[in-house]
């Protein structure tokens, strides 16, 4: 009974963590641009293909206890999540600066074209 409760709780917490990180991952990917989305999904797939056999290999080491292997794998994945967050945060800051510069230029161009097409005074009222 204790093994059943332990495995059920581990499965519950792993799925809970996945469903917490999933929307953040998708939002982060979308904020980097839709053109980057296929590359990010391929990268995620490749990293999963690498991480699964490596974690299995770590668990199969005879001189490493299963508890220590579990703590090691959890710490590695925690550090990777923090690293990905830092990389996402710095790259999203760069793209937000780029988007804010473009949106400023677009609004200025739009205002100039509106000012040229219709007679509007400095207060924004029709003349």
Automatic annotation (TrEMBL):
The chain crosses the membrane at residues 6-25, 37-61, 67-88. The keyword Transmembrane applies. Keywords: Membrane, Transmembrane, Transmembrane helix. This is Ferric oxidoreductase domain-containing protein.
